[in-house]
Write a structure and sequence with these properties.
By secondary structure, the protein is an alpha/beta fold. 41% of the residues lie in helices and 18% in strands. It has 15 helices and 22 strands. The protein has a 7-stranded mixed beta sheet with strand order 12-15-16-11-10-17-18, sandwiched between helices. Strands 7-6-5-8-9-20 form a 6-stranded mixed beta sheet, with helices on both faces. A 3-stranded antiparallel beta sheet has the order 3-4-22. It is globular, with a radius of gyration of 27 Å. The termini are far apart. The structure holds nicotinamide-adenine-dinucleotide (NAD). The site of nicotinamide-adenine-dinucleotide has 28 residues, from helix 7 and helix 8.
Length: 495
Amino acid sequence: MSETVSTTSAGDEVHQEPGASRGVVSQAAEVVATARRAFDYGVTKPREWRVAQLRALRSLLVDHEDELAAALHADLGKSATEAWVTETGFVVREIDHTLRHLRAWTAPRRVRVPLSLAPGRAKVVREPLGVVLVIAPWNYPVQLCLAPLVGALAAGNAVVIKPSEVAPATSQVLGRLLPEHLDASAVHVVEGAVPETTALLAERFDHIFYTGNGTVGRVVLEAAARHLTPVTLELGGKSPAYVADDADLEVTARRLVWGKFTNAGQTCVAPDYVLASRATLDALKPLLVQAIQEAFGDDPAASADYGRIVDGRHFERLTALVDPARVVTGGRSDASSRYLEPTVVEVADPDDPRELVMGEEIFGPILPLVAVEGLDAAVGVVNRRDKPLALYVFTTSDEVRERFVRDTSSGALGFNIPLAHLAVPGLPFGGVGASGMGAYHGERSVALFSHDKAVLSMPTRPDTTVWVRPPFTSLKEQVIARVAFPGRRRPGGRS
Ligand code: NAD
């Protein structure tokens, strides 16, 4: 089959992989053109419109909670409670927080002008960027489509959303409900897979917000470079947890189990592996086994609260990691239901390439335990690897806390609790280095999807620019030296 060549809304030619149809490209072009028209007509800018959209989105989430929960169960085996806490209800809280502060976050902010520019007035005006593309992954398919949407709408943008094809039931529900409830001229959902995303990426957007893996992140960045479009990349990687010898091990075990096995480990900020001294690991092991039993019973396969692996490809990837590993607990699986038991394994040498669990991000219910000799060694393991999206430290010591704050870098640093930083709307959520660029949530989302425009306004009389315009007389030199740029030496020969 030969390559297809089609044309974007900007008139650029797109060379698509074999299999991508002209229809896919023209659909992307049409959607973006419609969204841009809505933005250009000023539909999305008034605060009333933004508030109405956020309220409509809130109603959608509350009124269709069951339908969304059913889709999340079909895709990931999520329980209805987990679906509400980590997805639907999470977005409702984000909407409520945004609505409460929207006026303040979007109001122009006065800025002091220097004496030399008096009586001028300066302010920062937050304006929407235009048309935003949100590309979402499958693991939290509601939250990761809609939390960025909240910020983009609150900032007054038109939005095109591309849900993940790997969570098809949720993609379909969002594809149906969003156009029914929101302003269909400005908010669009494009369902599909790589061809659809590729066609969208050929279009010109004013911001691209991508959540997913780093390989596709590079594809997104390259596509954005063609139009000089700013990009936020919410990526993943291995998020370590260090358990210090002074940690409260019972609570640590319960929280690690919660953080790791929520959504069957398919969480970007799940603790990927545990570092601790040999003695602490030996004490932690039975507590982890007990905590798994407490959370999911004797047979986690029968627990309504334990999820499933999203598809066969990921199931096979994960079971291939378990097979060669030294299993402490768990390890059983069932391909037909994509079930993989909560599993804890031991790793002898984290730098040995044969330790497959220490290669890529696990992104599943396997928790490796890695023995290290003390705090310095733990910091060393963290710093030898890519900067993580999250780093967790379980300790009761201020010194240990200080050490991690000072000597490590990560998107977030959680002491004695995994995952929960996401739920603090005032905290930025995002990565650093290989775990991503840019951050959102709360006011940061509104700032991210806005341009802070500098506005300076000067009265025409008195015309104070006379002091900085040639000819530079001695009097002007004095004014410049004393008022406009104090500290400058008076130029010689002109006094
Ligand atoms: P995915 O496979 O659903 O892909 C994400 C999106 O990229 C989809 O919409 C898909 O259509 C699109 N896509 C895939 N291949 C493409 C290509 N070749 N060209 C253009 N578009 C393409 O999700 P995933 O990447 O498997 O997600 C898991 C990863 O995301 C993990 O690494 C995880 O840590 C990370 N993640 C990060 C966050 C965060 O907030 N930082 C949240 C969730 C997941």
